[in-house]
Amino acid sequence: MNRKNILLLIALFVAIISVVKIAEFFKTQVFEGDATKFVLEDLNSKYPGADIEIISIQRMTNEQGGNYFEIKTKVTKNQYTPCPERMHIFYNYPTQNFVPRQPEIITANCRVCTDSHLNCILVFPEEAIIASHTFPGTEDVEKYLKSYPDAKAEITEDGSGWVVRWDASDAAHYYAVELLKNGSVKSVKKIDKQR
């Protein structure tokens, strides 16, 4: 074989590998897109009005060598109310021949860190919302929420914790509660609205 034929064979081989890799890439992207679409449609039909988010997607291989996606999602009902309910729901797409994981309940029944407020870690915003009116030192906020049941939470996160602002449209003031991620109430501030 001469040099020209060898270069032609190498170029042909590289072209075939490139076509195969490009086809795999597009197949994977479409497959992941199908998985995302399926999961979001399923969650929206089961939990209408809830805040829904895909947290992670991992490509997995089953025992038969087939590929599937392991998908972790977040569903929060009543997100900005005093008692949001958050859970993590797990999917395998396409469905595999093993029992799916049970949902992981993060918050329910308006309770967080029920055993003790000591060593309580507030990881998720829903936990901070609940803590902002149920932990010791937040009794004024609890009274405010009873007086103004339409109050909504606004929550922000900084490096050390959370700030939960409770505001009702017909109230002359609002509350800002600072919580550390370790579960400590840093401050509760009653702030008059400017009229």
How would you sum up this structure in a few lines?
The protein has 195 residues and is α+β, with helices and mostly antiparallel strands.
Secondary-structure map:
Layout (H helix, E strand, L loop, with lengths): L2 H44 L4 E11 L5 E11 L7 E9 L10 E4 L17 H10 L4 H9 L4 E6 L3 E7 L5 E8 L4 E8 L3
Could you please describe the fold and organization of this structure?
The structure is a single chain. The protein is of the alpha+beta class. It folds into 2 domains: 3-106, no CATH class; 111-192. Helices cover 32% and strands 33% of the residues. The chain contains 3 helices and 8 strands, in the order αββββααββββ. It has helices at 3-46, 125-134, 139-147; strands spanning 51-61, 67-77, 85-93, 104-107, 152-157, 161-167, 173-180, 185-192. Strands 1-2-3-4 form a 4-stranded antiparallel sheet, with helices on one face. A 4-stranded antiparallel sheet has the order 5-6-7-8, covered by helices on one side. Strand 1 (51-61) and strand 2 (67-77) form a beta hairpin. The longest helix has 44 residues, at 3-46. The chain starts with a helix and ends with a strand.
